[in-house]
Structure formats: structure tokens, C-alpha cells
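Objective 1b. Sequence-to-structure analysis of Regulatory protein, tetR family.
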Amino acid sequence: MDPRRHRTRLRLEAALRTLLAEKPLAEISVEELSRRAGTTRQTFYGHFVGLPDMLEAYLDALLAEIERRNAEIRCAPADEADLQELHRRKFERVFRDLPRDDPRLRALLDGVPGLAPEDRFAELVEKLIGATPENPYSSDPLMRRIAARFYTGAFVSVVRHWIGSADPLPPEAMARAFTTLIFRGWPDMAGAHERTTA
């Protein structure tokens, strides 16, 4: 990309972050954003179709980074304890690197007209499950799709809660809790059922 064009794009992105910290996306106009970035509407439209397009570019970058990081871990250990630890470390990196204070992430999770971040994330998770032969759902298309939705829904809900919390847990605690729930689910369900029916 031309350096001048790149600088303009960075100014537009910075202006969007600033404005989203002040008000919801629905209250921001292209004219206001362009003015805040020190440019014109015409220049804005030379870079983006509209404000949702800016957030879609941000979502694309987030998903590409998640996919890139996942590719760094090529083979999973056979031992379940080691596999759980591998996932705990992976999720700790995700929670540590998530831009908690970036208002664009909050806007994405609050919903953007024409964008479906949860659907896009689920598609990525389904692809990652399919590319992991060790995963018991990798060869079953139906279970792969359901598992992707299940894990995505849980993760997005947890992230939404975490970034909105006034007193958030540290990334390592979030990763430990999330990974424990993935691998262990509800503790001792059979025992709990026996106790309540006795």
C-alpha cells in the first residue's frame, strides 16, 4: 500500500477508536469521523464503503491473527493432561493479546449491522477442528459444526463478560477457567444427579 494512503487509513482507524470510546457506532457519521481524522468524506470512501466496513476489516485482522497463532501449534500431544495444558497456554495468549480496551472490539461484540462476527468465528473454529485429526469431531461434519457453534458461543460470551467487567480476572485466570470448562464441563454430573434423586 502507498505510504500516504496507509497513513490516511491509520488516521481513519484512530478516529474510529476515539469516537467509539465516546458514543455507539449508530451515532457516528462518516462526516464526523472524516473530520476527526483530518480528512474528507471523499477520502474516507476511497478507503472504506462505510463504517461497518471498517469494523469488518478489524474483524478480518483479528480472525487472521487467531488462525496464524493456531497454526503455530501443529501437532497436539496424545496425553489429555498435556493437551489441556497446551490449550490453557493458547487461551492465555489469546486473553492476554485481546485488545480489551479497544472500543472496536466492544462494538463488534455489541453487534454491527451487516456483520456476523460470531458466525465468522464459528466458521474459523469449524475449520480448525477439521484440520485437527486428534479432535474426535474432526471427521464428522455435523458434530464439527455443532461443536464449533458450542465453543464459539461460550468463548464470545466469556469475552463479552470479561471486557465489560469493571474488575476483570487476569488473562491466566480466564484461560485456566475456560480450559477447565472445555475439558471437564460440569463437574461430577453423574454424582450430582445421584445426590439429587436419592
